[in-house]
Structures are given as C-alpha cells and as structure tokens.
Specification:
Layout (H helix, E strand, L loop, with lengths): L2 H6 L3 E3 L2 E3 L7 E5 L3 E2 L21 H9 L9 E2 L3 H13 L4 E4 L9 H11 L2 E6 L9 H5 L2 H13 L11 E6 L6 H17 L3 E4 L6 H11 L7 E3 L5
Parallel strand pairs: 3-6, 6-7, 7-8, 8-9, 9-10
Antiparallel strand pairs: 1-2, 4-5
Helix pairs in contact: 6-7, 7-8
Length: 237
C-alpha cells in the first residue's frame, strides 16, 4: 500500500477533506443535490407536447407531477441552490450530519457546488466518482479502454474530479441499463479494478430488470470487486 493510500485507510473522504467515521452521524446514503436528468426525458404525446416546456405554476402542477420525465425543467435539478441549502439545514436541524451525493459523470456532477453546500451548511458531503448509464456516455468515454476508465475513476478519488482538487469519496452511482451495454460493462470492470486499488465503497444503479443486479454482481466479482463494500440501489423497482 502506498503512503497516499495508507493515509486514506479507515477514513471518510468528503468534498472538504478527510473525516473520521465517528464524525458522520446520521447519514443519507443516496441523494442528488444538483444534477441534470435530460437522459431520461420522455416526450409526451403530440397533443401535450407544449406542456413539456410550461413553467411551474399551480395550473400545471398536476400534469408535471403525473409526467415528471416529460417536463424539461423538472429534469434540471440545479437551479435553486437556496432551496437546496434550506433542505440541508432542515436535515441538520433534525440531527442529520452526512450525505452521500451519487451524481456521476454524465448527469452534470458539480463538485464545486457540493463543496459550497458543505461549507454553507456544515453537512459532510461525499461525492461519487465514475460514470452514469450508457445514454450519457460521451464518445470519448465509449472509446476508453478499461485501463483508461480505471485511471479516471482512481484520479477522481486521489487527485480531484472535473478539473478541480475536490476529491470524491465513493465510486458511484455507476449507471447500468438493461440490457447492459458494452460501454457499461467496461465501466463496471474499471469500477472493480479501481475499488481493488482504493478499498472504497461502490454504489450501483442497476437496469430495470430483476436479472440486472445478479449480472452486475457477477461482472464485478469476476473483475475483483469487494462485494461486501458494494451497494445495489433501487431494488424496490
């Protein structure tokens, strides 16, 4: 183990730096404070097309609530930092202390914003490294080898994410579709390789099929992941 890795062992890496696990307190383990979700936009029927761009007004709320993925602005969760800060302070007032932010590359992770929220509220925020579902992968991501993807993930934790020195503390949520794509398969293998080097937790977003979590676990295990430190999200779906 390198000196750098030894300094991280047993610690929790937040966007403001390392903390002891005893400092975490009540923790939300899967949240998105700021992100874009355009990848899941579902066009409404032609007769309702205009409603996809209406503003948030009382007369439109029923339609938006019943068509959340068909309303463009509803998928852009970054426009109200004051409201996010207010909710974090409510969380803190109720005893909350830590939040794991699962936004990864592809859905507009913003580690600078996460650092600002943590400084403003005193909430520990742990940012996620890695890549979301295939539909958000850039041509550059698709062209990367498993080794290159592994390097990206490890650098986001050891060096900093998105051109900053703000470091992620977990890998994930790693996005998977059903059926799993070639690019997602490479990301899963890279996730396992990075975890085997770093020892940090992994958080998975499985595809919408009962077989998806088992397929993902097999790929991770065969690539050397530590399943005891792997979280499979969204199983209620």
């Amino acid at each position: 183990m390198s000196l750098e890795m030894a300094s991280l062992s047993g610690k929790v890496q937040t966007v403001l730096g390392l903390v002891e696990p005893s400092q975490l307190g009540p923790t939300l383990t899967h949240e998105h404070l700021t992100m874009t979700f355009d990848c899941c936009y579902t066009p409404p029927c032609p007769s309702e097309q205009a409603l996809s761009k209406v503003s948030f007004e009382m007369k439109n709320l029923f339609w938006i609530q019943n068509n959340p993925y068909s309303h463009m602005e509803n998928l852009r969760l970054y426009q109200e930092p004051e409201a996010i800060t207010e909710e974090l302070l409510h969380f803190k007032a109720s005893g909350g202390r830590t939040l794991v932010e699962n936004t990864t590359t592809g859905i507009s992770r913003d580690v600078k914003a996460l650092k600002w929220f943590s400084e403003e509220t005193g909430i520990h925020i742990i940012s996620g490294a890695g890549f979301y579902v295939d539909s958000t992968h850039s041509p550059e991501t698709r062209a990367m080898s498993i080794e290159q993807l592994t390097e990206v993930i490890t650098n986001e934790i050891l060096q900093g994410a998105d051109g900053t020195d703000i470091k992620c503390g977990v890998i994930g949520e790693i996005g998977c579709s059903w059926p799993l794509t070639e690019s997602e398969n490479k990301v899963l293998q890279a996730t396992a390789h990075a975890q085997s080097q770093l020892g940090c937790p992994v958080i998975i977003h499985p595809g919408r099929n009962p077989n998806s979590p088992f397929q993902i676990l097999r790929i991770l295990q065969e690539a050397g992941a530590d399943i005891s430190k792997t979280v499979m999200s969204h199983l209620d779906r």
